[in-house]
Amino acid sequence: MANTSRQFEAFARRRGFAFLTVCGGAEDRIQTDGPVIRMMRRRGRIGFPVDKKHDFDLAFWRHYERAADAVRSFDPDVVHITGPSDVGQLGALVAHRLRVPLAASWHTNLHQYAEQRASGLFRFFPRRARERMGAVIRESSLSAILRFYKIAQVLFAPNPELMRLLEEGTGKPVYPMYRGVDTALFTPERRDRSGDQFVVGYVGRLTVEKNIRFLVALERALRKTGFRDFRFSVVGQGAEEPWLKANMQSADFTGVLKGEALARAYANMDVFVFPSRTDTFGNVVLEALASGVPAVVTDGGGPQFIVKHGETGFVARNAGEFVSHIRYLAARPQELLRMREAARACALDASWDTIFEGVYADYERGLRNCATKRKNAGVRPQPTVAAPRLG
Hints:
Blueprint: H1 2-15, E1 19-25, E2 29-33, E3 36-42, E4 47-49, E5 55-57, H2 64-74, E6 78-81, H3 86-98, E7 102-105, H4 110-118, H5 127-149, E8 154-157, H6 160-170, E9 174-176, E10 198-203, H7 214-224, E11 230-235, H8 241-247, E12 251-255, H9 259-267, E13 271-274, H10 283-290, E14 295-298, E15 313-316, H11 319-331, H12 333-347, H13 352-368, E16 385-389
Parallel strand pairs: 1-3, 1-16, 6-7, 6-16, 7-8, 8-9, 10-11, 10-13, 11-12, 13-14, 14-15
Antiparallel strand pairs: 2-3, 4-5
Helix pairs in contact: 2-3, 4-5, 7-11, 10-12
């Protein structure tokens, strides 16, 4: 989500579009860069962590007056929020009180995260009881999230499955908001690895909602088939890292990598595996494809819509299929090369500019149908955007 917001700002800057970002952070700060304004408001201690980088500030609404003044002065055509975060809730309030049309995009399956993060509390219960309690948490969270999204006039989602979910849950049309990739940074040309050992890669948070413990099961299953000449490259950090290190025999843990170091790590993989079933899109999968690395992903969540089965990778239904697809590529160098080339070609079509041009077009379409009427309203050729987001 943060990367998408940064790319959105960069797009507006390149095109000369007026763009105001309101985000949460460690300090109060306002920066102006051409037509782009970034307003950061400090998060306090009254809240809880969402993940390693982000907190939810229960008192973030204390910044309402400053945020409202900034938005009022900016005079946007639309306020765009990225979900029910502390900043998103503030943005929704500002849009409502200033009578500015509200757009909302779905970025995270919070209802699934809630279920998985609560699962540890019920680990001593019988399996059926755990499943029932998990379902209650998931469905009640989803119901609350959909109620929040109903307040927006324009809705976006990153894959067809979620578009249908939002449409059915809100009764409103939903537009696509996919992701792009920097194909100049993520490229097969950064491959500088020597040796013939087959490298299975993963990039992302090492947390329960990513189904990260599956990597241990996958390594053991590969070994049971008699396959030994492989090694995992695990990029990222999170609460599950100590457990993974203690339970994986053939794995290198790099921690968090960025920029060219991350791009080299991708390019030096032979196949990318992504066991998450909760990701709404899967930016890391697209980065792997751009690096010329075919991906094996689950049949749940957004990554299944990125990978072209049998062309740029595989969509696997279970651990057995993960194993068979990895073994297939490891045993067939020519087929691996073909998929590497197809993966790169597919990613070259995923331009951030194309993505955001579509979003602006959908703003205009949504604003024309918006029930909220503003004095002297008129759709500008490029709508000015205020984008409160999780930062």
